[in-house]
Design brief:
mainly alpha
Length: about 70
């Protein structure tokens, strides 16, 4: 279920190289800040997901690893 997916993601995040982790923190901070101004910039959670998901999950190997670790 959802808890398993969150746990799998947490395991993957913990295994990230330090530079990748720092970049992830920066991207998440940007997304959070963007959402803080969603009334002005008209960027909802869904809009941000549509924009960033292809970028963050762009490679087949990354997507495959993500899907395998969900189960």
């Amino acid at each position: 279920g959802s808890d398993d997916m969150v746990h799998s993601l947490w395991i993957l995040i913990q295994q990230m190289p330090p530079n990748n982790f720092a970049l992830l923190v920066d991207v998440l901070s940007l997304l959070k800040e963007t959402l803080m101004f969603r009334e002005t910039n008209k960027m909802s959670e869904s809009s941000l997901a549509v924009l960033f998901a292809p970028v963050l999950l762009h490679s087949q190997s990354n997507m495959q690893m993500f899907l395998e670790n969900m189960h």
